Structure formats: structure tokens, C-alpha cells
Amino acid sequence: SSPKAQRITALEHRRGSGGTSESLRWRQNPLWAARVCLPVVYIRFPQDCFYPPPQQISMFLSPPVDFLDCGRGAPVRMECNNPSDFRIEADGVVYAARSLQRSPQHALVLLVKAIDGTTQQQWTTQVRMEPPALSSHVPPAGNTDLMEISFPSRRNSQLKRMKRDWVIPPINVPENSRGPFPQELVRIRSDHDKSRALRYSVTGPGADQPPTGIFIIDPISGELSVNKPLDREHISNFHLRAHAVDLNGNQVENPIDIVINVIDMNDNRPEFTHQIWNGTVPEGSKPGTFVMTVTSVDKDDPKTANGMLRYKILSQTPESPTSNMFTINNKTGGIITVAAGLDREKVPQYTLIIQATDMEGNPMYGLSNTATAVIRITDVNDNPPEFTAEMFSGEVRENRVNVIVANLTVTDKDQPNTPAWNAVYKITGGDSTGRFSVPTDPTTNEGLVTVVKPIDYETSRTFVLTVEAKNEVPLARGIHYPHLSTATVSIRVMDENESPYFEPNPKLIKLEEGLMPESALTIFTAQDPDRFMRQKITYSKLSDPANWLRIDPNTGRITTIATLDRESSYVKNNLYNATFMGLDDGKPPANGTGTLQIYLLDINDNAPKVFPQEAEICEKPEPNAINITAVDGDLNPNAGPFAFELAHRPFDVRRNWTITRISGDHAQVGLKIGFLESGIYEIPIIITDSGNLPMSNTSYLRVKVCQCDINGDCTDQQHIMAAGLGTGAIIAILLCIIILLILVLLFVVWMKRRDKERQAKQLLIDPEDDVRDNILKYDEEGGGEEDQDYDLSQLQQPDTLEPDAIKPVGIRRLDERPLHPEPQYPMRSAAPHPGDIGDFINEGLKAADNDPTGSGSTAGSLSSLNSSSSGGDQDYDYLNDWGPRFRKLADMYGGCDD
């Protein structure tokens, strides 16, 4: 065997789910002495193995048997010599095929064979399972039948490095145990308990976490016990962690995980999700047609027989045509048909009793439950509608619509109020003009023969209709309509007294306006549609808005009783409408109405007028004229273009005014003289239209002459009053303006006074002190900002400034106001600082007089000052125009006495 295999003496137990009471130990293979690659058995388990009591064993997972193929790569199949008791999976895991009883006296030897899937070469090895009594380890005092769980050995306080992870096999505990409690499950122990006293404990849900108190452990012996019956349907497994500490509470072993599986017992009956199941299947369905699926659940473990359910049909009601019309899939619960002959008209519904049994349907050990399946046979259209009679009759009065004249009845054996029962009627003959329809009554399924268009008795007195009846859905395959699905309907029309009617309606006539009274216009008569009745029609007037017309009651002749005027307010778009009524003498009498439309042609019967009739003009027009328009009630060519002229009287009209024609409808009136006194003047204007036999009219234009402002608007009191302002409103406005002006004046005086006070304070500061560093800027209006605009450098000798202190052009402080570039003055020789402002100015004058360049100061206004001048008669008021810097100088050296 390989050196790696030779070094392995015992490996950790990798995984498991229970076991027998025997212990598994590795035994050396006799074939290892050979120099060939042979299978090696890896038995993975701790030094102390453990197993539950034999009565709890149904299947256990042994340590896996691995085959070291030495790089062969071929698939290997494993077999054992005792397949009735054990089986080996492809991954080498050995399972118990049944519950095994341990034998304390004899060890069980299992022969394992590995077969190469390609070459069929075989290797064998042995797995020896010995009882705990053969183990070299003697368990501690206590219950010697308990399975033991040992902590893995440690090296240098760390877990020993192993090929596989340390996994403790689960502990299986059956549910619903009757006790007595507490019931011991397993013993937890550590190899260190030989040298010192230890204390054991477990933690996790079921121990110290909710639900608490289910599992308890003896801290000295390490016996883990269950304290009450378990319910797998409530909690199927528990995950605990075992701890081992010394008497000082120091951890001796790393905690190990313990899984406790609750073994299922068949303590729950199957429960159907519904107690009554409803399904449908069409009538006439073939065998094997799916109907529905019933389901039930079992709280027991579905992986075991406890939760494996089987279904069957206990009974069928009614047992027609056979007692086995349906069957059920015993695993899925699907119900299907197994026999033909489903007929809804004979058996509309079946009731099945379904049973579900666990333990795979074992009637002796399984638990059962039942439910009811109601299968409704749905209708198919296998019965056509049939008329109850071959002939139907009815009658209707002429000109009636939306009335029922006959009811057609049918019979249908299919389920009522379904598409297979609902009838649809169709007229197949006798109604070429489409005057009838046959809708279906949704309640009775009758055909309602209804008139949808008016019927004229004088045209048709009887109708014979052919009606066909079908269902909403086609008939099932193989079924044909009988002859009774067609019927004949006879309808008689009854005469009615119909209303007279005017033809044409409305009637239009054209004539000129101004027609004189008692003039004949036209004859407007009505016709009686009742040709078989001899009736007389009389006429009357219903509507005549202007009361212009009269109608003869016997002949229908219409004459005028007043002059027709196209410009009347009753005429719209040259049309005048009048309504008349014709009444017959039938029983009962009937009447009809007609409208007469008179289109009035225009004649020149209206004189033109001026518009507007009032206007305003200034006393001194510059220029200021009035535009006027001529209006005429007539239409072209009886209206414009118009001729305009001023009347000859009074004589001052043509002397003061002038009129100029602008277009055919417009003219302009203006003052002929340069000035006209304010007042109201009426100007007579003669306007003549262009009609055949033209008409003239003198209209008066009322003109108000007033004083105007620069905008040409009247400014006198009357104009203001015309604008809608009263005397009180004008006085209030004037008072507000005066108060506002006073407030502004007071504010300006206060600002002037404050500005002078600040300037006086600035002159008292030493020129060498740049007061800008001490000036504060306030957020205020007026002089607050202006007070910070002093540039005291202008009052200092430029030569005395250090070169670094001279500001470049365009550079200013952040607290300075942005200023326009100031003129640059020439540099003068240095001079001592004057003691006061007067001496400073005198020194400046001397420097200017002695300037070798001859240019003097760039401030031209100072050139008038000279050293020989006394200054008493000099006017310094112009310094006020230089800005705030020179305003104080003007006050000090000006001509004022103060």
C-alpha cells in the first residue's frame, strides 16, 4: 500500500445518522505486504464510538469505506457480502438495511469488494465491527448502555489537524415517548476527566434557549437526557453545543455540535385541504377525460411511510349508468372518467366519497380520512331549440315603432340560461325592407317580433315572416336541426288617422321689402296621407313674430297685414320665418305644421348716419382731427360709398370746421382755425349714400373742445370727472402727494446735515493717519457709504510716502467704493507736514509756483490761487463741484461770512 495509507492508524468519524451498538475498528489488510496498489479501508471514528439503544435503530450511517485507486482513474463499484443487512453507496457510505441487534460476545465482520468498472479487476478488504466491551477504553461509571460522545483529542490546546472534519452523528429520539422522564440519551465525556474533575453543559434551543428545559445534562457524569415527550411536527430537530470546563470555569475542550433528530411516528391522520371538492366534466365525455384533483396532507414525515398517502373512491352516487363512472389516481388524487354515457339531461351531478390513507395505503396500519367530491356534468349543445307551433300571428297599428307584435315560444332540453339553451332568432323571409326584428327574451327564451321602422297602412296591410331559431353555440357534432326550428309569423297592419304634412317644408319665397299690407304672398297647403279617408284640413297661424302675415283657414292663401321691413330685428340674415298648422277632422283629429321662409330683398329705404356721435378735440390742434364713419341700415349697393359735406347753416360751421373724405365709408373732421374756445359744439354733417335714387341725411356730431396736455388729452375738471374720479378722490390724492414730498424734503435735509458733520470730523484727523482703517461700513442709505470715500492720500505730500506705500492704478481696498480713474498729479519735493490745513495749502501753493516743469497742478481750478493773493476776494464756490473731498475747502475759504 502507499506510504500515506500506512501512516493512518485511526481517522475521525466523518458523518452518520445513528448506528448499532457495535463499534467499528480498522484491521490491517493481510494483502498490504504486497508491492501492488490495493484498496485501503479508511475507518473514520473517534477513539470512543457511540450508538443509540437497539430499539431506536432503523437505519444508521457507518464510517465510509474509501478506495485508494493510486491514480487509476477508473470507476470502482463496491459490494458487501451481507446485502440483506448492509448496503454500500457509490461514495463508500455503509448503511444498515434493517434494524440490527447487537451481540456483546461476537464481532461482526463485513467483507467489502471493490470491482474495477473497466477491467473487472477486484480487490477485497474486511470491516470488523466489535461491541464496546472489546474496546480498549473503559467508559466511566454510570449507565454503561449509553452511547458516548467524546471530545476530539487536542494537541497544544489546538484541534489536531485531520484529513476530515469532525462531525458527530445525529442522535435519533422518537417522538411521543411515554417516558419515564428524564430519559437518558447519550453521555458526553472528555479524555481529561481521567486527570481532573470536569463539568459538562449544553447550550442551544431546547436547553438554555426557548423552548427551554427540553434537554438537561448531568454536569458531573455528562449524561444528556430528554425531559419531556417530543413532537416532530412541532420541532423536527435540535442543534445543541456541548461544553467541558474545569472547576474554575476554564474551557478544557472546544465545544462540539450535537444534532438530535426527532424520529417520526404515525400519529397524524391525513387531512384533506377541502372537505368538499367541486369539479365539472362535459356531458358525453370520452373515458379518460380528466375531471379534477383532490389533495390531502399528512403532518407526519413525507419521506417515511407515515406520510405517504394513497387515495381511493369508496362510493359513487348515483350508480347510473354504471357504478364505476370514475376512477382516481391513488398517488396523485387525480379523478378521471372510465366509462361513457355521461348525460346531463339524465344525471346532472355525481357525488364521490374519497378516502386518503397513510402508510402507503396499508388498511391495517394506516390512518385514513375521507372527503366528498361533487362532480357536476356540464351541458353541451346536444338539443336544438324547437318551436312550439308552426304558425304565429300578430297585429300592429301603422306608424308605430318599438312595439312587440308577436311572441315566439321554443323548447330546449339543454341547461337553461346557458349558451346551449339560449335561442337566437333570425328572419329569413317576408321582410325585404327591414321593418321587423326578433330579439330574444333573456328570461323566457322567447322570440319577440318587434317593429323597428314605421309601417304605412296605405302601402302594406299585411306581412308574412319566416323565422328561424338556433342556439348561441353550434350543436354538438353529429346532431342536426329538426324541421321544428322554423316558424311562420303573420302580421296584420291596422289603419290610423295620420297627421297632415306640408310639402315642401320649409317653403322658401323671395320678395322685396316694403311690400304693402294686403298683398298676396303664396298658397301654403298640407296633404292628408289617409287616402282611404275623406277628411277636410283647416289652417291657422302658429308663429308670426312681427305679426306681418295672415292665412286663409280653408285655402291656405297667405297675405300681408303690415309692411315687410328687412331691417327689422325679427329678420335674421334676410330671412323671416313663420309657422302654420294644418288640422284634419278625423277621430281623433290630427295636425301637422309647416314653416314659411320669406327672403327679403333690400331696397334703399334707410338714410346714412354719422358714427360716433360724440368726440373730443383740443383748443389748439397740433394736429388733432376726428375720424367719423357713415353707417347705413341698407346693403350695398344701397349703402356706400358715401359723400360727406358740412351743412351751410349755421354760417360759422364752415368757418370753424373742415371735413375731408378718407374712404368710401370714412371721413375726418378737424378745426379750420388755429384756436377755438373750450366748449361743446354740434356740427351738422350731410351724408349721402350711393343707392338708386340716393338718400341723404343730416347728422349732428357733438364735439367737446377742451384744453389738452402735451399728450393731447383733455385736462379740465370735466374730463377728470368723466374718467370716473370724484372731488373727494382728487383731494385725497393731492394730500398724499404733499405728505410724500414733505417726507422726502425732511430726509434730504437730515442727510445734508449729517454729511457736513462727518466732513468736519474728517478734517480734524492728522493727515498722516489714514482714517480709512478706522472707518466702519454700515448697511444704511444716504451718507453712510459716502463717508467712506475720502482718499486722504490726496492731502499728503506725495514725496513723503514710501515707494511701497503708493498704490498702483486700479488697486483699491475692499472697503472702498469703486471709483473712476483719478488724474495723476506730478510729484513735488518733500516738505514738512503742515501743522494745520491752512499751512498745508500755502505750502502746496509755493510748490506749485516753483514747479520747474511749468505745468503746475493738474487741478486746473487751483491755478487761480497764488501766493500774492490775499484770498479774501477769491470765489471758492466752484470747489463744491469737485466732490466731497473739496466741499469742506469751499466752506472754509468761500465768500460766506461763517
Describe the structure.
The protein has 898 residues and is mainly beta. Among the domains are: 76-129, no CATH class; 176-263, Cadherins (Immunoglobulin-like, Sandwich); 271-378, Sandwich (Immunoglobulin-like); 386-494, Cadherins (Immunoglobulin-like, Sandwich); 501-601, Cadherins (Immunoglobulin-like); 609-715, Cadherins (Immunoglobulin-like), CATH 2.60.40. 9% of the residues lie in helices and 32% in strands. The chain contains seven helices and 51 strands. A four-stranded antiparallel β-sheet has the order 1-6-5-2, with no helix packed on it. The longest helix is centred in the last third of the chain and has 37 residues, at 727-763. The protein is flat. The protein starts with a helix and ends in a 5-residue tail after the last helix. The relative contact order is 0.04. Mean pLDDT is 75; it is low at 1-64, 132-142, 155-166, 718-723, 766-835 and 854-872.
Tags for this entry?
mainly beta; Immunoglobulin-like; 898 residues; 9% helix; four-stranded mixed beta sheet
Structural topology:
Blueprint: H1 3-7, E1 23-25, E2 76-80, E3 86-88, E4 94-96, E5 108-116, E6 122-130, E7 147-150, E8 154-155, E9 158-159, E10 171-174, E11 183-189, E12 198-203, E13 215-217, E14 223-226, E15 237-246, E16 251-263, E17 271-272, E18 276-282, E19 290-293, E20 296-297, E21 310-317, E22 326-328, E23 334-337, E24 349-357, E25 368-378, E26 386-387, E27 391-397, E28 403-408, E29 410-411, E30 423-429, E31 436-437, E32 447-451, E33 462-471, E34 486-494, E35 501-502, E36 507-512, E37 520-523, E38 526-527, E39 538-543, E40 549-551, E41 557-560, E42 575-583, E43 591-601, E44 609-611, E45 614-618, E46 625-631, E47 643-646, H2 652-656, E48 657-661, E49 666-671, E50 679-688, E51 696-706, H3 717-722, H4 727-763, H5 783-786, H6 837-849, H7 884-893
Pfam families: CADH_Y-type_LIR (PF01049), Cadherin (PF00028), Cadherin_pro (PF08758)
Main location: other
Biased composition (Acidic residues): 781-790
